[in-house]
Amino acid sequence: MYDGKDELAIIQEDIKRAMGKPETKWAMLIDLRRCTACKACTAGCVAEQKSPPGVIYRPVFEEETGTFPNVKRRFAPRPCLQCDNPPCVEACPNKGENKATWKAGNGIVMINYEQCIGCGRCVIACPYKARTLDAGAFYTEGTPKIEDYETAPTWEYSKKWPRQKNHSPAGNARKCHFCLHRLKNGMVPMCVSTCICRANFFGDPEDRESLIYKMMNGNKVKVLREVKAPGEAKLKPADLKGMNAMDIAKKIGYPGTIPVFADSSQTKPRVYYILPLGGE
Q1: CA distance 80 to 52
Q2: Which of 16, 52, 106, 251 is found 20 to 30 A from 188 (Cα to Cα)?
Q3: pTM for this one?
């Protein structure tokens, strides 16, 4: 609750007000003091995007510090950070507005599935490992029948994408897009709406009336710092298909399970964090 009102109701109002402005730039704030690692955001996202095996837009990283009995645990959801200086876009051989990937004026890093060639360069270039390649798999493959719910279309980027072999987004790079299709209809992103702890704040941080503006200005805010870790192995783009974000992070490096927070990052993320006391 914030001033006696549910945060979700306030965020909904903030989104509708922001949509009436010509230059809204979306951002997200995640309060790790509230996150309990219930992973409702992860499950809600998978259900909303009809995500196939290996594609998880919002993993929740869990870390433990200290020694018994003085142990602390911290949970950090990691969507795409929608960087203002995105390395993934720079790495793309077909970058540019309405091409394979670009940074949009609304603050979201976009992917055009029809232009993406699935080379995987962006997946490797992202220092947060927030992108994955869709291998075109189904959870119920190998059973008597691929269930109907697995072939239901996704509506990402406000377009109908049937779930079929050899049909986009199968074979393409995929990532979180702040539920752009929901935003266009004045709806809250799914991960925000499913969080039982109200740990997420969303809107235009330039809007002084918005809850995200008030929370960011009333608390010490951090971002995820880009880190180039050696990882276990060097992978070719083709090796990434069907590998989920956690496995990619494990093979290539950061973020693994220990996110590194800082006051700023060269990538200029648009996802911000409030850390627990003593959590820096």
Answers
A1: 17
A2: 52
A3: 0.91
